[in-house]
Design a protein that fits this description.
single chain; 376 residues; alpha+beta; eight-stranded mixed β-sheet; four-stranded antiparallel β-sheet; 18% strand; disordered N terminus
């Protein structure tokens, strides 16, 4: 044979330059089989057209990328992309829809501006999976085990590492051990650190820990004594220097209700009113990933990937295995497999810090019950 049978794209110069929406509409050129030397020679006479077509494709791809970047946010520019790296993802609305039955109809987090690469190696540590067992091998937490291996991110909850020094947000990442997003920040001296990201925080923004002159910008860490009434904060310390312990989950925040000389009154997400020392640090804003409450697992395998094993109801067991087992529980109140009450019983241990709780969660629930408010 004069030439081998092989597929090759044959593009006409008039077709490329005359139709402006050719590549935008996604229509591909027709595939021609070169079975004769004459056809191969005719295709080889258009090298300029092929080069021009490839150049046109590159230009249109660059224009499409620019439009995507503009849709993500005006603060993301070309200089920022160089710092974020190749892990920047396209918005979810531009991603192809799922076609498989196991993933159709699910809802997941918005990963538009999240970094999809590897974390900083010196800021992570591999987690040892216990599968719900203690040091002697006895199961202490049911329905745990398996799942993907996880790495702990060393998140700076104290925000006192380099006070009053500005830091640039390099990128936003997911943390497999928490629901809120984390941000990789770089201080002026080059120090890298992970912190909890505030809702609305974008790569390229500048944050800091303001101790002397408080700067109430979103993502900054300030003392509670300098926060105005009505401000929303998260990652709140209970004691100065201990690190943030309150309002760290996705979308969580605490509201400043009143300021005193040494303490600040906060309203937590649960409705509890609590006094916190005024010198404790808190981050301005609310924790990121507010839409986490709308997440829905697509298939049973996702639950296994998270380390959750199938759960068996107590009423489906035998009496020897669970207090609810057997034909009837005999009017017994809901309890754990070890007999502890689960609904309405007080389980919080008495501590000295309870004197700082002005209004407890139980009081809030009783007030809502008497007012006829139904929690959804």
């Amino acid at each position: 044979m004069a030439c081998l049978l092989r597929p090759q794209l044959q593009i006409s110069p008039a077709r490329v330059f005359s139709c402006s929406g050719f590549w935008a509409a996604g229509r591909l050129p027709q595939r021609t089989w070169l079975s004769t030397p004459a056809a191969a020679t005719a295709a080889a006479t258009e090298p300029a057209a092929s080069a021009a077509a490839q150049q046109l494709v590159k230009q249109r791809q660059a224009a499409a990328s620019a439009r995507v970047i503009d849709s993500v946010g005006s603060s993301i520019n070309s200089s920022l992309l160089a710092g974020v790296g190749p892990g920047l993802r396209l918005p979810d609305e531009l991603m192809p829809a799922s076609k498989t039955g196991g993933t159709r109809g699910g809802m997941s987090r918005n990963g538009s501006i999240l970094y999809n690469g590897r974390p900083v190696k010196r800021l992570i540590q591999k987690l040892k999976q216990s599968s719900g067992r203690n040091h002697s091998g006895a199961i202490t937490v049911w329905n745990r085990g398996g799942g993907a291996s996880k790495f702990r991110r060393w998140v700076d909850f104290h925000r006192r590492l380099l006070p009053n020094m500005p830091a640039v947000v390099r990128r936003l990442e997911r943390d497999p051990t928490r629901t809120a997003f984390i941000a990789l920040i770089c201080y002026r001296n080059g120090t890298l650190s992970y912190v909890l990201a505030a809702e609305g925080l974008l790569p390229g923004m500048v944050i800091s820990t303001s101790l002397a002159a408080p700067n109430l910008r979103m993502g900054n860490a300030v003392q509670l004594g300098a926060c105005p009434i009505g401000l929303s904060v998260f990652n709140v310390e209970l004691l100065p220097g201990r690190g943030g312990q309150l309002a760290r989950a996705a979308g969580a925040s605490a509201k400043v209700l009143k300021r005193f000389a040494d303490h600040t009154l906060l309203k937590l997400t649960s409705g509890e009113h609590r006094m916190v020392p005024a010198k404790c640090l808190a981050t301005v804003g609310e924790a990121s990933n507010v839409a986490h409450t709308h997440d829905r697992l697509r298939k049973a395998g996702q639950s296994r990937h998270l380390g959750r094993r199938p759960h068996v109801r107590g009423v489906a067991m035998n009496p020897v295995d669970h207090p609810h087992g057997g034909d009837t529980s005999g009017g017994r109140c809901s309890s754990t497999p070890w007999g502890r009450l689960t609904k309405g019983a007080k389980t919080r241990p008495p501590r000295k810090t309870n004197r700082l709780i002005v209004r407890s969660v139980r009081t809030v629930k009783n007030m809502r019950r008497h007012a006829g408010v139904v929690d959804v």
